Amino acid sequence: ADAKQAKAKGDLVNLQKMLDTYRLDVGYYPTSDEGLESLRTQPSDAQGWKGPYLTKPLPNDPWNNPYIYEWPGPDGDESFVLLSYGSDGAPGGTGEAEDIIESGE
Question: What is the pLDDT of residues 61-78, one digit of tens each?
Fold first, then answer.
């Protein structure tokens, strides 16, 4: 279980770095609708996009669920939420099912 959680944390940190680079280039984070796919495919209104920031297909989490991305995050436009719901694929949970959250800011 720990190896999967560590893999998810590593993926989330990598995605967070790519999202930060995207924001530096474009001026804002991708919207929830544009999602993480905007790291690979330029959204139509993303001026200054210098991607693809992610050359491989978007990773799923170690339990084969897509990572969840939401923008704006808890601190408004300057933040986002990026997470895996863990082994149960649902919010909350403990142990292997615990959510793994990376908040960008």
Answer: 999 999 999 999 989 999
